[in-house]
Design a protein that fits this description.
alpha/beta; 2 domains; 7 helices
C-alpha cells in the first residue's frame, strides 16, 4: 500500500510538471507573438536611419541626445496614408505660420519609429501664460509625457548650400525656447522631457545640423533630445 501511494504521488507530480512546462511554453510563444512589430511601422514614406532608438533612459537622463534619419516620399505623396494622429494634427491646424506639415511628419516619424501616442495638438496644450513660449505637440513615449518642438532646416533659395552659421542660429534659437516653454506649460500638461524635431531639406542639410550640434556647449543643449529627419522624394509640400 505504501509503495502504491508513493507511485501515485510520483505520477501526479510528473503530470503536474508536464502541465506546468506546457503552460510555460504557451506563455513564451504568446509573448514572442506580441513583440514581432519592429520599427519602422508602415506609413507614408520610407524611413531609414535611427529608428526605434530612443530609450527610456534617454528620456530620464539629464544629458542631451541626438538621432538622425531619412524619410523618402518617393514620387508621390498620399495624405490617405497618414496615421490617425497625423490626420488629427492636420485637421486641428497650428497657431500660425506654414509649418503644419512639418508638425504632422514629426509626429508620423515618432509614431512609426518610437511608438509615440498623440495626447494634444498645439492649440490644445494648456499654459500658465498664453502669451509665453509654447511647444507644438504633447505625446506619450510609452507612458511618459514628452513635449515636441518642431522646426525646419531650410534656406532660400533652396538650392543654395545650407551653411553652418544657419544651422547654429536655428539650433541656438530653438534650443533656447525649450526651457521657456517647459517652464510655461500648465501642471496638467507638464512633460518630463522635450524633443526638438528638425525636418531637413536634404541629407546635406541634416549633416550640417549635426556639425552645428557637435560644436554647441552643453549649457545650450541642456537635456534636449534632438531628432533630425531629412526628407527626400516628393517633399516640396513640406517647405
Amino acid at each position: 500500500m505504501r509503495y502504491f501511494l508513493c507511485l501515485s504521488t510520483l505520477l501526479i507530480s510528473c503530470t503536474s510538471s508536464i502541465s506546468d512546462d506546457s503552460d510555460t511554453d504557451t506563455d513564451t510563444d504568446t509573448d514572442t507573438d506580441t513583440d514581432t512589430d519592429e520599427a519602422p511601422l508602415e506609413g507614408q514614406g520610407e524611413l531609414s536611419g535611427d529608428c526605434g532608438e530612443i530609450e527610456q533612459e534617454d528620456i530620464e537622463s539629464g544629458q542631451p541626445s541626438f538621432f538622425s534619419n531619412v524619410i523618402d516620399f518617393g514620387s508621390s505623396f498620399d495624405e490617405a496614408e497618414l496615421t490617425n494622429g497625423g490626420q488629427e494634427i492636420l485637421d486641428d491646424g497650428n497657431l500660425g505660420g506654414s509649418s503644419i506639415w512639418s508638425e504632422v511628419f514629426a509626429y508620423e516619424v515618432l509614431y512609426r519609429c518610437e511608438g509615440a501616442e498623440l495626447i494634444k495638438t498645439e492649440a490644445e496644450i494648456m499654459y500658465q501664460d498664453s502669451g509665453g513660449k509654447k511647444t507644438d505637440l504633447l505625446i506619450h513615449l510609452d507612458t511618459t509625457p514628452v513635449g515636441v518642438s518642431v522646426t525646419r532646416a531650410f534656406g532660400w533659395p533652396p538650392e543654395e548650400p545650407y551653411t553652418l552659421d544657419q544651422a547654429m542660429v536655428l539650433l541656438e534659437d530653438k534650443l533656447g525656447d525649450i526651457p521657456l516653454s517647459s517652464a510655461n506649460v500648465s501642471s496638467e500638461d507638464a512633460w518630463q522631457k522635450q524633443i526638438l524635431h528638425i525636418l531637413a531639406y536634404t541629407p546635406d542639410h541634416a549633416e550640417t545640423v549635426k556639425q552645428a550640434w557637435d560644436s554647441l556647449d552643453d549649457t545650450v543643449k541642456l537635456d534636449t533630445i534632438v531628432v533630425v529627419t531629412a526628407t527626400e522624394g516628393d517633399d516640396e509640400f513640406m517647405y
